[in-house]
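Handoff note, outgoing to incoming analyst
You'll be picking up this chain. Sequence as last confirmed:
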Amino acid sequence: MDADRRLATAAAEHPFPLIFATISGAHLYGFASPDSDFDLRGCHVLPADRVLGLDPGPWTVQVDRKDTDGFELDLVTHDALKFFNLMLKKNGYVLEQVHSPLIVVTTPEHEELKAIAGRCVTCFHGYHYLGFAETQWRLFEKEQPRRIKPLLYCYRVLLTGIHLMRTGEVEANLVRLNEEARLSHVDDLIARKVGGREKETLEDADVAFHRGEYERLRAALEAAGRSSSLPERTDARPALDDLLIRLRMRSIEGFPA
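Most recent structure output, in case you need it:
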């Protein structure tokens, strides 16, 4: 597939070594349209001269690319220090990137990071998904015409959050999540988005129904968070610290004295 080659090329052209690079966004969530862009996310490691000097960084690298044939790529990676700190917060988004099965670049450290990521999940991660869902719902409601994409994002983050609170497992694919939830209207929305365009719209008459579903699933996520058996705190900090030190020492070994 030509997209695979372009994604691999973009990762190979990254200015710093990558621990991993995975596909996020609509392709990961299971509702990419034929004209959807590609969201490439990952973690890089800065060399010693970019960490030890007076002007360290860049902690984040971002590249936006649009080819003449319509291929669009949004690449964002964080240095290991920034990425690991995000993992220690109630940030489900970075955990989804680590666990994404759509892998462009991987390393042994990526496998180590996957194991550590499972220990980062707490019962408070539900708040991340509640906030994300609220943002997407507001976006959906204020648009005219209303697009299906932000509505699918609402369903996706709410079902991801519910699943995470109940099982401790990070699952970002709405198709798989809906195998458990069994919401036929979600299947219909996915089919319209996948078979249509990125800006596929929804009829106004359907908004009230989806508002009710949004409120119902939001309440279900809140309840799942309250009853979750997940810990309140992560114990992953020492493991992430050890991995970061090893990555930094490796970069310093090749640094001229």
